[in-house]
Write a structure and sequence with these properties.
By secondary structure, this protein is α/β, with parallel strands linked by helices. The chain has 17 helices and 16 strands. The chain has a single domain, classed as Rossmann fold. Strands 2, 3, 4, 7, 8, 9, 10, 13, 14, 15 and 16 form an eleven-stranded mixed β-sheet that branches. It has a three-stranded antiparallel β-sheet with strand order 1-11-12.
Length: 507
Amino acid sequence: MGRKYNSYCVLLAFLLLAVPITSAAALDQAALLRQFVKSRSRVQSSDGSAETDPWADPVSSFGHLPTYCKNPKGSKEADRIKALPGQPPRVNFEQYSGYVTVNEEHGRALFYYFVESPYDAASKPLVLWLNGGPGCSSLGAGAMRELGPFRVNPDGKTLRRNRHAWNNVANVIFLESPAGVGFSYSNTSSDYDKSGDARTAVDSYNFLLHWLERFPEYKGRDFYIAGESYAGHYAPQLAAVIVAVREFTGKNPTSLKGIFVGNPFLDNYMNDKGSLEFLWNHGVMSDEMWANINEHCSFGPSDGVLCDEAKSPFDPVNFFTTAGQIDPYNIYAPICIQAPNGTTYSSGYLPGYDPCIEFYVPNYFNRLEVQNAVHARINTPWSTCAGNLSWDWEAAPVTMVPTLSWLVKTGLRVWLYSGDMDDVCPITATRYSVNDLNLTVTKPWRPWYTPANEVGGYVQQYKGGFTFASVRGAGHLVPSFQPKRSLVLFYSFLKGMLPPAVSLSQS
């Protein structure tokens, strides 16, 4: 009995000395959005100025852009990846990566990683995936932690297959954008001080024109834009640029059919309100604190010091003191623990999910042999999120609702989805923005099912085909937490059909 008790005490002491580190790392990324919301509420009214807002009339702002690449450079064959270091055996699809220069004058170049489908790639659509931040890498997050064909192992040197990768049903480009993120760069250092929504959208559009010259077999292929988080700006804005050019010129160089955005950041004030309401609804915040916030906050441009004080316990700086050591990206997920000897391990078990993977990925991409294999600039310090960008917050729209409404009216397929355990861009916030679209419901809220007879989430469709869905049991990075369910929903989006309304056992 004494020996067992001593062993228990040693284990307890070890656990008490261990330090949670994923929460701290997650805070850095979550803080990008939360600090953005806080700063935006001080610099711009909710109306904005139609005279200075490029998104108020996308056709006038962007319709003049070119419809073809004047001086294409690079080649598909030069970008071909023979094999990624540490990849598992029997990889049965083609991989490419490299740089596309999007601004010759400034020497601004974006890095991409492209994976074709292992199953009849020639008949599959083309999808561009964009991570948010703003300033976080689609290569590090989307490709290696979420929907890509591989996941990085704990050794930071080898890879394993992701059985539920989205390239099972599509050919997927992961773009590191804007310049300064991941391996993407500019030869004009001042570019990093002038990052913003409009330039990011135009650079991404120019990337597509150049990339299609490098991969001409994809010209005319059905094309979709997908992403998450601040891609709630990136994806609709890039789509708006593409549609604007199409309407202005009558030409359609990308064959864009729709956008598919998860846990999107759509509205400064509603994201703030939705995040705090989510914490209260899930028992993280007391009734008294929520009442105090509602008393002093209208969640609009008139909010001042009293509102800031009421919300301060859940500001990024104070979040973990108030809420405890939980991950705001999934408040029910395990976190990564660093032991006194420097090793890391998960605080709990969630099938298929390792919270420490965010540390494995940088280890992998900072290896010289990996940078060589993917045709990146050698000895480039790579990180998941950029720390050297200054974002033009004032020029970013306070709300994306007008842009989304315009896209729906043009006939574009627009789907939004939310993992229902995320507090950074929570389902509560997205519902407020969906409600602001003021669309008529055509197919009411109902459960949808996976082939395993699970309720994958809930879905509702509106006039014009706009669709909003939830993914049950998922956090901010939906494909990381629920890979099977995310793939079912993505496949449904590509087919333009709502996911199954009944389980196979009922059909």
